Here is the input.
Amino acid sequence: MVRKFLNSILTSKWTKVVVFALCLVPFGILLWRGFHNDLGLNPVEFVEHATGDWILRFLMITLAITPLRKILHLPQLIRFRRMMGLFAFFYACLHFSTWLGVDRAFNWQDILVDIGKRPFITVGFTGFVLMIPLAITSTAGWIRRLGGKRWQLLHRAIYLSAIAGVIHYYWLVKSDVRKPLEYAAFVGILLAWRLWSWFTDRRKPAAVRVRQDEPTTAETM
Amino acid sequence: MLIKRAPDLTYKDVTPKVLYMGRRNFLLGVLATSAAVAAYKKLPRVFAGPATGSVPQKINNFVKWPGSTTEAVTAEKDVTHYNNYYEFGTNKSDPAQNAGNFVTTPWTVSVEGEVQKPRKFTMDEIMKLAPLEERIYRHRCVEGWSIVVPWIGYSLSTIVNLVQPKPSAKFVAFQSYYDPKQMPLGGSAGIELPYVEGLRLDEAMNPLALLCVGMYGETLPNQDGAPVRMVIPWKYGFKSIKSIVKIRFVKDQPPTTWNLQNAHEYGFYSNVNPNVDHPRWSQKTERRLGGGFFAARIPTQMFNGYADQVASLYNGMDLKKYY
Here is the structure.
């Protein structure tokens, strides 16, 4: 009964509106603090760190949706995966443009040197660039054009983005690596779950496997 | 397709609802426990009560040093709430929150090693060894930000001359106070503690090398290195060791904390130098704090703008090699 109730909440269109609004709260807080001169002594660093944290959090949430819907038997959670991935990209755009336009003030010479020469920037930039095709092809039309299998293969790049993001963070800090390691552990668990479920799935008879597969739609991919 | 019924299962074998629900409760329990642990981590700060440690006292008898920079001084609230003092936490806002209970009285500094007259100085003695000067210095962090601070103190050379180094003394090694009971976060700082730093003897004798006991007209706040610290304005901030308990004159170059943590990134000299990048970022520019979100970065100066006074210390040295 509880599950039925939860699923009915998950399928309500109002839930999507509420979740969407919640995902904008961190952005709203940054704007609020910015207008009230409350971003601390190093506001650029503050915004870069805050948006950076939210990219990683949204990437983790996106990657956690498939395991959660299987473990909790809440298949409707899939309705939120694209939104979570796009919010990760939204905060990545804020993060990148703050660095590009404010921190480096569009000083292209320095920016190109940084991207080419500083490994932590190279890896962060790579993670961001990899998210661009995923954001573009996140629509139902693109799933149809690419075909489910190819689309799914392409969207596995989100693992690379998540790993790149964690390395970017790990290489940034000077000595206290606890927070980047927490993210690393989380990505590790999510990847391990997928490998494990892929492995156990392969050992099941074909008939069972077919039945477990989901139809290919924008929401389920 | 032939579908067999499992013959050995009866209604009695159905998992009781209590157990079946137990799994969900277990999951909820895990979530609740995680939330409780996260909340508990924040608790000490909420229920810590009023701070019981040492607080800054007004300093009345200082003179203004003529060499001060005329650049705008960074706001006191900013300099006391944006600190790298890893013994009190690794976030910039941590030291201001966690150093409140740090007790710095009584305090003695032991000056020892290759000297004719080793001795211990009490804080009262240190306050009176030489006339106190207010010196406004630029302060450049290796991370790429800078502040302008009105420090109070006198040249370290005062102490060096008092203890009379032997000819064998070539370097000066400094050591910070470290008490895991007062500094419980030190264990997770990722650097070896107690914090140690060092200078070549001629660097230590340069008049700019400041033995600092105060700032903004008061004795040092705990989070800024109370009660006595070094300020070496031509070097990156981490060379300016805080809360000093030992100054030792030695024959060989002493170990230094950040060099021990990562020798590739932090050298013994660590002079401010826009032409020698940190391996992970450029040192050509810096962010002068207090300018707000859209303030442009400013160029970093050689020896942080103190080249006239200190460049001769490094004549003939390859500063890319001795970074």
Notes: The CA atoms of residues 267 and 323 of chain B lie 5 Å apart. Residues 62-314 of chain B form a domain with the Sulfite Oxidase; Chain A, domain 2 fold (CATH 3.90.420.10). Chain B touches chain A through 29 residues (CB under 8 Å).
